[in-house]
UniProtKB/TrEMBL annotation:
Acetyl-CoA binds at H146. The active site is at H137 (proton acceptor). This is Acetyltransferase. It holds the Pfam family PglD_N. Residues 4-82 form the PglD N-terminal domain. Substrate binds at G70. It comes from Alkalicoccus luteus.
Amino acid sequence: MKELIVVGAGGHSKVVEETVAREGNYVIKAIADDKFDEVIMHKGRIHMPLMTAASLLQLFPEARWIIAVGSNETRRRLREKLPVPQTKYAVIIDPSAVVSPSAVIGFGTVIFANAVIQASAKIGEHVIINTSSIIEHDAFVGSYVHVSPQAVLTGAAAVLEGAHIGANASVIPGKTVGQWAIVGAGSTVVHSIPGYITAVGSPAQRIRKGGKEVEEHTG
């Protein structure tokens, strides 16, 4: 099996690790996170502070990497900070997920259990396609997006960079969610919404400009 380096050791990372185990293509050799104060060996894996993660490029030169962090903004920052070539980032797909052979999946993306990605969908880099979510035909998902559990993007819907689609939310055909926008859980996007806002309800309506991740991104 190929070697894998995991960046992040929080709750999202736990799901990524279990998905890696089910997929069976990789063996995790190291986990890097700020929660570790020193380099230690635990259960056959190196645990180390994030600030020293770059040294793993020399220790495991053939390894693939995955940024296992739930925050869209933090994934973006880590991708820009780590000196890891984009082609070294893995794509992790749970065996129970259904992915069309005509779909395009970017580096660093994770697709969790029971997700469905239909024909000609395009998924960017470092995206989270969470449990039981559906990406329909010809939909577009930009880099650093998080599509939460059981969310649905219908045909030709678009979600631009850094946006977050809440659990059980849906975007109807042909509509766009702007970059770094947040769509609340259970909401329905029936009109395209601009970037850098939070929208909730059915139909989804703007309730405020931005949100925590957006403030970090623009600040």
